Amino acid sequence: MPTLLLLGSGELGKEFVICAKQLGCRVVAVDRYDDAPAMQVADAREVIDMLDGAAVRRVVRKHRPDFVVPEIEAIRTEALLAIERAGTTVVPSAVAAHLTMNRDAIRSLAAEELGLPTARYAYATEAAALERAVLGPRGIGLPCVVKPVMSSSGKGQSVVRTRAGLARAWKHAIDGMRGDTRTVIVEEFIEFDYEITLLTVKHRRSAGGGTTFVQPIGHRQERGDYRESWMPCPMKPALVRQAQRMAKAITDRIAGPEGAGLFGVEFFVKGNRVIFSELSPRPHDTGMVTMASQDLSEFELHLRAILGLPVPSITYRGPTASAVILADFESARAPAYRGIDKALAEPGIQVRIFGKPSVRPFRRMGVVLANAATVEKARRAAVKAAARVRVVG
After folding, report:
1. Highest CATH level, class, for 120-188
2. Cβ distance 98 to 81 under 8 Å?
3. 66 carries an active-site annotation
4. Catalytic site includes residue 317
5. What's the pTM value of the predicted model, to 2 decimals?
6. Is 285 known to be catalytic?
7. Any catalytic annotation for residue 278?
8. Average pLDDT of each block of 10 consecutive residues along the chain (393 residues)?
9. Across-strand partners of 118?
């Protein structure tokens, strides 16, 4: 029975743990707060500061896992590199976790080393430098997008349209950053036609190697965070092939020959151009739609790749959509939920409540999944059902 140490225990980790338990794994869930969603279904839990490298190493020594599985970016990745050198497998690799911990490292690798098309970008470590990066002689210009180099779920991200907005964007980015890197990335604002997530699964060379792609997932964001996703995303076959080539190039580079697992690779699509945006070396929030769209969800694909198990061809179930359930108040106590019965009264609807022990405005507390005859009908059904579920104090 392999032991998995999960670093980060949110809603994505919870679904991963459920899949791991179904295949007989032992799972230790780790996070910075107690009773995180994945802890509620794991065999054991640890509460530590994952930016404390010594604490990460202590937990690994205590539980002696076969695999260390990062689920968030805010981890002291130098500790993961040392853990991997000592013989414990880090998923998909310690280098992948290290490179994707900060947006600056992965963007520089994509654009400068691999030559992938990206939005124009610059970095800033203070408010004055941000203004120069945007308005200087060779600046990005307005409008632009400002993000902390380390964050999650869109925290700290904003679109800036005026010079006066730059100071607010700097403060918002620093307030929303994870970790201890006071650096922001500023990008040109791309008027894209749509954006996608391409789930990309890497298989270990010792298990046959190769790459599996899931059908592109369309998604919509607000405040830099996912609100809806859907499959299949209408996309020309030539553009799908472009995205697949880029996803393979960057995941090959950061995973290495023995790295295995699922990556969420994000792209903008503008006309006949596919533009690299971001990458996560783990299941992606927009990929929660795969819990209803196909026989192997993104969590099952991630687990199979980690364990070296086969991934046969994926069977898709037709048009599917997801929509998030949001909180609109703050409380340190676990909330209640009303309207689940109304949401489930419609055919083709599933509801997942994450079980988060506290609430804040705009926090994702659950997700609705919908199957329908068309993508448009599935999206409408998911949004309508999600609106019926209320998070209450």
Report:
1. alpha beta
2. yes
3. no
4. no
5. 0.94
6. yes
7. yes
8. 96 98 98 97 98 97 98 91 96 90 85 96 93 94 91 80 94 84 90 97 88 97 89 97 98 90 97 95 97 98 96 95 97 97 97 97 97 98 98 94
9. 276
